[in-house]
Amino acid sequence: MPSTFAFRILRTLGMFVLSLFVLLALTFVIGRIMPHDPVGLIVGELADAQAFAAMRAKLGLDLPIPQQFWIYLQGILHGDFGNAVLTGTPVLQDLAQAFPATLELATLAILLSAGIGVPVGLLAALYRDSIVDQVVRVLSLLGHSLPVFWFAILGLIVFYGQLQWSPGPGRIDAFYEGIVPTRTGLLLVDSLLAGDSEVFWNAFGHLIMPAIILAYTSMAYIVRMTRSFALEQLGQDYILTARAKGLRLRRVVVRHILPNIAVQLITILAISYGGLLEGAVLIEIVFSWPGIGQYMTNALLIGDMNAVVACTLLIGIVFMALNFLADLAYVALDPRTRSGE
């Protein structure tokens, strides 16, 4: 029923807003009770007590926390997240520069991990307990168990330091910075729009190694879950019947297995993509990638809570938006959900 579907959408939106408010409140309160004092970073540690008091009053840090939160909430509703202590510029301006870098890295990583992980997971399920399955399981276990920063450091040592196949840390060589106009913030897209292939390939060279390492850690999870979903379907009677009728294995996978695990795969891919956007912190630090992970880490180290709260809220919005889109995909792939069946 349409009314049932509309109610589910409204309920999801309501939970979306409530969850963001709770996330914002908790992050704000935790930031205010942390021992870090951003005032010292602004006026300097050698400033006198009067300068400290004046700056605290200017920032509103001398007010009760509930009043501070109310003022901050009013600012957010008007699009003002305050200025970052580290850069002195509006936080939204910093996020507009940092988030596209993380988005570009995470998007290429999820495309690689999904494009390879799903077929490999299906292959392991189809040839269960074979040498192929065993190799896939070992590689998945390694990707899931070993820390991502270890892969990142090893990649830099081998492919940049020894073999010199990779251009190294950073998002682009200093020589190419500022050559193409910024339209989307995504270097690959902007260089294509500008028709500059030299900048594109330089940016792609910097992107590919951190994206592959990030994709491998995510791919391990996708492979394991895809294999599990496919094994569950392979044991069903309709699959055994199709095979008994002589239906080719490829057609069984395409016509029966994939449609029946599509909803589960969407959930896994949405979770993985959100995790990549959030969890690229170590990769960004090792590769000096100017994304939101490195920006948030630097803000945490100096107690810049305007930046931390804004980053936390942005990550929360991304996760909830992905879950919302996954719910819509459920309806598109499974018509029974439209009537609440």
UniProtKB/TrEMBL annotation:
InterPro entries: BPD_transp_1_N, MetI-like, MetI-like_sf. The keyword Lipid biosynthesis does not apply. GO terms for cellular component: plasma membrane. It is found in: Cell membrane. CDD domains: TM_PBP2 (cd06261). It is a multi-pass membrane protein. One of its GO terms (molecular function) is dipeptide transmembrane transporter activity. The chain crosses the membrane at residues 12-34, 105-126, 138-160, 199-223, 257-287, 307-333. The keyword Transport applies. Residues 99-326 form the ABC transmembrane type-1 domain. It comes from the Bacteria. Keywords: Cell membrane, Membrane, Transmembrane, Transmembrane helix, Transport. Belongs to the binding-protein-dependent transport system permease family. This is Peptide ABC transporter permease. It comes from Pleomorphomonas carboxyditropha. The lineage of its organism: Bacteria, Pseudomonadati, Pseudomonadota, Alphaproteobacteria, Hyphomicrobiales.
